[in-house]
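Work through what follows:
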Amino acid sequence: MMLKYGTVVLSLLATLILPPLQVTAEQPAVSDETAPPLPMRVSPVTIPARIALVSGNALWIVEGSKPEAKPVKVQTKGSVDAIGWSHDGAWLLYQQRTKEFGPAYLWAAKADGSVTRQVDSQPLSDQASWSPVQNMIAYSTLDPAGQLPEGNLKIATVYADGQISSRVLLPGKSRVGAFAWAPDGKSLAVSLERLKTEPLLIDRVTLAGKRTRLMAEGGPVDPNVGIYPYLASGLTWSPDGKYLAFHVTVSSGSMSADGVAIQLLDTTKPNRIVELGVGLRYPQWLAWSPDSRQLAYIQGGRREATDNKHLFIVDVSAGFAIVDSGMKGYVDTQPRWTAKQPYAVVFARGRESFKMGTTESGGVLVPGQRIWIRGRDGQEQAITVGPDSTADYDPQVSPDCRQLLFMRLHEAHKGSLYVQEYPNGPAVPWLTGLSGEIGYYGNYYPSWIQVFWERPRRSG
């Protein structure tokens, strides 16, 4: 999951020919005079989920399965971003910064918001994520001054009583640039910041620290080349652990922000790499089907998320055949797969806009944007309906495919959380008074909401 760097200096360096930086919009502190309305539940409809939301720089948790449950505010300081729920929904991971443009620190909150714990005393670097099978967190840190990445990888274990233990899996100066948990939670894929004397590298690292090579692409960099492939970022495993999708960030932060190569690594064969196209380096735009047969991804250059972004599908079971599923004049974002067969992709689609990530004239970034579905047969249709003055984002389908949650914005920074029967029942507002940031050039990351779905009950 992409997070924010904590200093203005790092943002400025992104325009130089330096190791690339992932940049998202900063969230300034909200004064009492401009405080947004509080989130309010307006529907008794139950949702089998625990929902965390960031609104007005505050963190809230709602128990959706209880018809009378209201949003509960988590005691935090400064501005926050929610990262995600632990595999069992017992803990919520978030980052917190107490100073505008200051470093962010990693925290965990108990599911009911009653307990918060700081994970590490050092500032968070670029990434943190939960293990898919246990309450372990993988993350990396900045130096104690909060200036530069240490290039390390740490593992923290969160216990039921709130105690946290942390250890260093890969020490500082290991050149860790990105990482992703393997689906079985026994290892991580780790990509290394490239030296000019070596290839582009991805390793597998077990929790015991054992390393094996997954990819070594290319060779030493030609000394006459000024800009070169520097890091495999946004690592995204297929559920079966055979394939790894990623973006190839180059050694210029400015050039990387306008689009990078999208590639797929077949780990069952030595260094088999499939070229998928060019897109923005958001791991949220790489989504595997539950059966690992298809990858949905967003292709298209230029850093604005509001134009020239189209849904593509690659079928690994059909010789890596690629299908362009975009529509001329429309923009696609935020692909997600349903959990039940026949698997389908839900995503946001609207007419291309050229507001350059700003909303000086008011309104939403992509007027009339709706949630769409693409079935396994390739048929597509819009499944939400609303006025052109609004825009729908962040589709989330329940594991039993009975409910759809989505954000409906009436201004770029304001909106409500809606619920409807999936796929196209009537939509009703569920939480109102939500506010947040549009993200880097309108990418809407970090997401305003993080949903932990309750496990479907087994019959019998």
Remarks:
- Helices lie at 8-13, 253-257.
- The first helix runs from residue 8 to 13.
